[in-house]
Amino acid sequence: MRDGVLCFLRLCRRGAREVADLVCQLSTVADSLAKTMHRHMAREEAEVLPLLMRTLCAAEQRHMVWRILRAMPLRLLERVMPWVAGEAPSRIRAGIQRLRPLFGVG
To answer: CA-based Rg of the chain, rounded to a whole angstrom?
Structure first.
């Protein structure tokens, strides 16, 4: 019985090390993904958005934004809209505030 307990404890220690190694690997991958996404978004803001603003008229820009927002899940919109509203001009923020009750947001 004692040998079985010792064997179990060895397995647990080895398992804990393997879990720690996996957590470390996961953390490294998550950091790499975050850096890649940050670089991608910075490039998009610097290159793509100005190009779209020069190329599309205001109505086309509104239509494109509407299509993007319509495709987002509600939970994602809840996280994105404060950021979008924070970057918007004050008259747009006021309009967003007026719409909040329609979406059940106090």
So the answer is: 24
Is 100:106 a contact under the CB 8 Å cutoff? yes
SS (HEC) of 9-34:
HHHHHHHHHHHHHHHHHHHHHHHHHH
Distance CA 24, CA 15 (A): 14
**Cα separations (Å) of 99 from 44, 83, 96?**
29, 16, 5
pLDDT at 39: 93
pTM above 0.70, yes or no: no
pLDDT of 68 strictly over 70: yes
Lowest mean pLDDT segment, chosen from 49-53, 83-87, 90-94:
83-87
Please say whether the beta carbons of 61 and 52 come within 8 A: yes
Tally Cβ neighbours within 10 Å of residue 84.
14
Pick the closest to residue 96 from 75, 78, 72 (CA basis).
Answer: 78
Q: Which helix (H) or strand (E) holds 51?
A: helix 49-55
Q: Yes or no: say if 88 and 96 are a contact pair by the CB < 8 Å rule.
A: yes
